[in-house]
Amino acid sequence: MRFHIVLRYVALALLLNAIFMFVSCIISAAHSDTAFMALLYSALVTTLFGIFPLIFVPATTNITNKEGLLIVVLSWLLSCLVGTMPYVLYGEPFTFTNAWFESVSGFTTTGSTILVNIESLPDSLLFWRASTHFLGGIGIIIFVLSVLPFLGIAEMVLFRSEISSMVRENFHHRARNAIRILAGIYIGLTVLQTVLLLYFGMNFFDALTHSFATIATGGFSSKNASIAYYNSPQIEMVIIVFMILSGIHFALLFAVIMGNLKDFWKSSVVRYYLLSMAIGIAITAMNVHGSHFQSWGDSFRYAAFNMISVGTSTGFATTDTSIWPELSQVLLIFFALQCACAGSTSGGIKADRIVLFGKSFSAHLKKLMHPNAVVPVRIDGHVVEDELVWRSVLYIGVYLAVVFIATVLLIIIGMDFKEAFSGTVATTGNVGPGLGSVGSTGNFGHLPDLAKWVLSLTMLLGRLEIYALIIFFAPGQWKKSISY
Predict the structure, then answer these.
(1) How many whole angstroms separate alpha carbon 431 and alpha carbon 316?
(2) How far is CA 470 from CA 136, 457, 461, in A?
(3) Which of 101, 260, 366, 477 has the most CB within a 10 Å radius?
(4) Which H or E run contains 384?
(5) How do the domains of the chain map onto residue ranges?
(6) How high is the pLDDT of residue 385?
(7) Residue spans of beta strands (DSSP E) within 21-89
(8) What's the CA gap between 7 and 64, in Å, rounded?
(9) CA distance readout (Å), 209 to 124, 134, 220
(10) Concatenated DSSP letters for 396-438?
(11) DSSP letters of 233-285?
């Protein structure tokens, strides 16, 4: 392990953060607000930490898989750490714990917040807050790779270390092409949504920051009431469309752009993702009709927006879902666990794994009825290797174990079951709001500091798909192989 080489690549991620801090400084200067010095100091310190390794460490494009994993995890952790500086230097309501929670929530595109009065913050700080979503949406390292020239082996290793194993199985492009596709679709969707939100009445700042949050499936809003502030069916429809698109494998969106609709429509994962969401919306609309909304139009409007928001792990809100009937709350929990497709910016277990679990369960039943039969697991006509099936089922088990353990810890700390469980599901899935006081109209600011640290950990575990973070903190994992 060449730790100096690792630091050189991590430095690139820090410089990327510094660029957005400087942009936030420009916004602060233009508005003459109170966050200028906090953002400037943060940008300068982050730049210094980013430049030194680039000056003193020679460039290399030959890195190992272990180094790639360490680069990815350290880039996330240090980005979250430097991301706290603008908040801490700004002051109230940001203690270090609150700043860490908000920073982790931003970079992991979770969208949970400790803020009670979001609109009291200056626009420059809100822009930095939204920028953490934009940087974390497709992955910090993917963002870095998209603006660097070809890096040979390093590019392939970092790409494979950053993205989900489910994406690697389904992304049939070489690393450089895959990176360009991810970045191109990501930025293109952001620009297009910004233009549409401007057209339907948002000002430029709100349109841009809400687009950052939508395409990253993050959920940070610049308004206390989230999207409910605008009370606009047109704005809600634009955001619904882009939440759905952001939850679909970006390679499939690229195929549609290139005129290849066949791959999109034949994808069983996409069909399941869209159908399950439609069924969830229909059941919820019927469930809330009469008791919470008097018209069918309002029932479907609010059911669609909030169910899709949770089901894509975005986390915007137009109403208080914590007071919905229990059936609707159960459906929200289910979609917060599942979320959208691999290869998107969504969190959660992923619809791909749910489909694979269902297919493998069906194949197992057939095998029990016909012990001598060979019953392969197939998705879209392709046989899935037993190794991938096993990894997917194991991941679901480990994911649920993380939710269970974190829920128990939060109950021990003093949270009630509903808030502890829904909060854990929401943060592990990078969804944002849970139920009760941490629901769509609440926040996480009132929780004990220890609870915020537990939930920050579940955010990181969910965003890095558990294994990477566990390996990073495994005793003795790096000690024997580090060299200077």
Answers:
(1) 9
(2) 20, 11, 8
(3) 101
(4) strand 382-384
(5) 388-481
(6) 85
(7) none
(8) 14
(9) 11, 9, 8
(10) HHHHHHHHHHHHHHHHHHT--HHHHHHHHHHHHTT----SGGG
(11) HHHHHHHHHHHHHHTS-HHHHHHHHTT-HHHHHT-HHHHHHHHHHHHHHHHHH
In the block, residue with structure tokens 């609440």: 442
Residue 432 contacts residue 108 (beta carbons within 8 Å): no
Helix ranges (H only) for 289-325 are: 296-311
Q: Pick the closest to residue 392 from 430, 434, 350 (CA basis).
A: 350
pLDDT digits (tens, 9 = 90+) for 17-71: 999 999 999 999 999 999 999 999 999 999 999 998 888 877 776 777 787 788 8
Q: Which residue has the tokens 């626009």?
A: 123
Distance, CA of 400 to chain centre = 18
Q: What is the DSSP letter of 482?
A: -
- The count of other CB atoms within 10 Å of the CB of residue 392 is 25
Name the DSSP class of 345: S
Residue 335 tokens, joined: 């979609």
pLDDT number for residue 434: 93
Quick one: tokens of 327?
């059936």
> How far from chain centre, in Å, is Cα 408?
24
> Using one digit for the tens of pLDDT, what is the confidence trace for 408-421?
999 999 999 999 99
3-class DSSP assignment, residue 3: helix
Q: Which residue has the tokens 């750490």?
A: 81
Is the pLDDT confidence value at 151 over 60?
no
Query: In terms of Cα–Cα distance, which of 106, 98, 111, 99 is closest to 129?
Result: 106
Q: Do residues 428 and 410 lie in contact, with contact meaning Cβ atoms separated by under 8 Å?
A: no
The answer to whether 335 touches 307, Cβ cutoff 8 Å, is yes
Phi, psi of 306 (to 5 degrees): -75, -35
Nearest to 67 by CA among 2, 162, 159: 2
Alpha carbons 358 and 363: distance in angstroms, whole number: 9
| Coil/strand/helix, residue 88 | helix
Instruction: Determine contact, residues 163/139, Cβ cutoff 8 Å.
Output: yes
Give the H or E element holding residue 377.
strand 377-379
